[in-house]
Amino acid sequence: QGGFGGQYRENGSDTRAEIDVTFDEAAFGADKIIHLTDPNHSGRETSLKVHIPAGIDDGQSIRLRGKGQMGRNGQAGDLLLKVTVQPKAGYERKGMDVYTTVSIPYTTAVFGGEARVHTLYGDVMCKIKEGTQSGSKIRLRGKGIVSMKDANVHGDQYVTVQIQVPRHLNAEARQ
Questions:
Q1: How many CA atoms lie within 13 A of 90 on its CB side?
Q2: pLDDT at 8 (0 to 100)
Q3: pTM of the model
Q4: Which of 56, 49, 36 lies closest to 145, judged by CA?
């Protein structure tokens, strides 16, 4: 007993579940349909449309208000979806920054030139300075993950340069 007018009132409890998203869905945002067993209706499956916010990271949660268990007062709890971001080949994420590698010919490292670099937003051509060493990093400003708090703020992409060293040189290449 308690509450207003002697009526016992209890909100529904929160429900927890997990959702897998691709690297790109986490980076750009997406709408997904999930299927959950409804705890309020003896195992009935329900479908929910979930908006994945751009910039969400592995381990963060999405709260869907009123989608949890029903309470005695008819007020439902929340559904908390823990996000698991699947890896993307060639990309590593640290916060809002993205790390990749680019492999360039030995001659480009020695004499300089350009290299095509894959980013989340499409390929870009990067200037390679003469005498570039293997392991050098190129910073691509604004090519990282968008901030969940401010859509105008992006992380950076850091590209590690790997040099393709030739195994066999012919006479022309030696010169």
A1: 9
A2: 53
A3: 0.81
A4: 56
